[in-house]
Structure formats: C-alpha cells, structure tokens
Amino acid sequence: MPQTRIGTSEALLEELRGWVLYETPTTDPAAVNGLMDRAEAELRAAGAVVERIPGRDGYGDNLIARTPPNPATGNRPPVVIAGHLDTVWDNGTLASSMPWKIEGERAYGPGIYDMKAGSFLAFHALREILRQGVATRSPITLLLTPDEEVGSPTSRDIIEREARGAAAVLIPEPAGNPGGACVTARKGVGRFVVKIQGVSAHAGGNWTEGRSAVVALAELIGKVHAMVDLAGGTTTNVAPVWGGTRPNVIPPEAGCEIDLRVATVADGERMEREIMALAGERDGITITIEGGMNRPSFAENPDILNLYERARRLAREAGYELPKQHRGGGSDGNFTAAMGVPTLDGLGCTGAGAHAPNEHILWRDLAPRGQVIVGLLETL
Known about the structure:
6-stranded mixed beta sheet; 5-stranded antiparallel beta sheet; metal ion binding; Bact_exopeptidase_dim_dom; metal-binding; hydrolase
C-alpha cells in the first residue's frame, strides 16, 4: 500500500470543485494562468522546485514542479506525470448550461472529466507526497500544460524535453469505459486544412465560364472518405466544410478540415502522403492542403505492459480491478510513448461525457484512483 495518505473522496471532491468552478478554455490564456497560479502557490508551499514557462502564441503558461534534490534518489531518472488544465468549454458555460452539481455518485461540470479531475489528482499526489515527507524511489516531475485540447502546439517541446530519459510517464487523462480502463495504446492523429480556389461566374448566364470550388470539394471529400480502413484502424472525418456565397453564383472558394486517425506510425506517414497528394491544379481549380500528423501513434509494448501490471496490482490493493484498453483519441502520451519512454495513460477518474453536455465523474472513485497514482509515484 502507498505510504502517502490521499484523503477521502469527499475531501478530494470539495477541492476539485474549486478547480471546476475556475473556467479555463484553451483560448483564454489569462483564465488558464489563473488556475496555474493556484497550483503553483500550493506546490511551492509544499516544497516543490517550480519552474514557470511563459505562454506564447495566445496560450497560457506551462508549469513544471519537481521534488527537491535528494541524495537518496541519487541519479535515478525521474518519473514524469503530465496533465493539462485547459478545457474545450468557453467562459460562461457554468452559468449558461453546465452548472456544477452532484447527483448521487456523479459530479458534473465543464472539464471535470477531461481532465480537471485527473490533473487535480496528479497535483494532489505530488503535493501530499511533499507535505507528508514520503520518500520516493525516484525523483518526480509534474507538468501542468495549457493547450492539449488543440494539439499541444506550445507544450509538446516541453513535454518531450522532460520525458527524455525518464523512467516512466504517467498521463491522468480520463479513465475509459467500460470499467475505468487505463490506456496502453492510442491511435496517431493527423489534422489537415483544405482550401480550394475556383472561378466565379453567373450560375445562369455564364455557367460554362465558372469552375465550382464546391464541386471540387465534394469530389475530394469522396476520395478522403474512401481512405477509411476500419479493419486496419484508419479513419478519416471531414468537418467542418464551407463554400459558396449565393445560389446564383458559381462558388469560387471552398474548403474543409480533415481529421485522420491511424494505428501505426507507418500508417500515419503513408496516409499523410496520400492526403497531401490531393493538392494541385487542374481545369481552373487550385487545391492547397496544409497540415500533417499532429500526434504519433502510441503503441503497446512490453515496457508499457509491465507498467500496467504494476498499476493493476496497486488498483487491487485499493479494492478494484483496473482493465486496459486501446483508445482512438490522442493525448500527450502519444508524444512520450513514440519516444520509447514507458507511458501509461488514462489514469484519471472514472466517468463519461468528455466534450459533451453530460460530462461528469464518478466522484467516489477519486480516492482509489488517486491511490494508484501515488503508489506509482512512490515506487517507480
């Protein structure tokens, strides 16, 4: 059993409530930094060595908190635990459509499942290890980041820098369904933006002079949809789409975005080439495509399975079974797993409704899920 006392689920929920009531949309760096300020102050007070990296490109700051140097851990590589504070929900969501509420075993609120509960548990675990003076086998590095929901454009380099040479990386993203599964593999994610330029003309009097960007877009969407290979783990999705101005005008402009999910790094490289090859010029139509693979595939391997078995034993000590799953959505764990660092994901709280109006956690699981996190941080 872990030495660190994690506290009751009731106490954890009460503190988590303050995090949820502090709205942190990715697009509002000041809001994200406000919650970052709160976490930083608590970690400094507990004795963490804290580094704050100023935000850039319209995103909030990154926070790095480390256990102080300790001769007992020697030169052992650190254990890294990384969570994000940003959510997909705009300011005002609490007041307009998703109030904080508790109904039985469920606690509701914007971002509570994805992933304020998990990031809070990571923060709380490190803070309590420091407050209680618990000796850990390895140094611990906690990352709190501001931009995961849009692909981690400013935090990826920091995550990869801190993960390089780490003993393991833990990602407290939401637990999966069924059964609160943790994650031992994720698909790679690609994102593309397509812009099509045609030729405008009167749809009645000069139809032959026009070149419809919307028709070209429709043809491209069909080609992209035909790339889906469910058996092989490759999916594409085109959304949103746009184009045209009026019914009597041949549309000179159109476009779309493409979401790509792949099972392997090789599939990602191949699919990126195939999508980019749809660009070009013909018969008055110009197609330009920007983008590429945003997150590499996160493949299960023996080191990850060993990490999972350790977490599974800790979960049994905490009184529950911890299944594992492969997940289609990406996370910051994709970056670290692709580096060859043993990475275990989905260690956050149970619940459902990520990015949906019914987002909630099963709050009574906060303490047992937190117990696994502190156990891993103490013993890895």
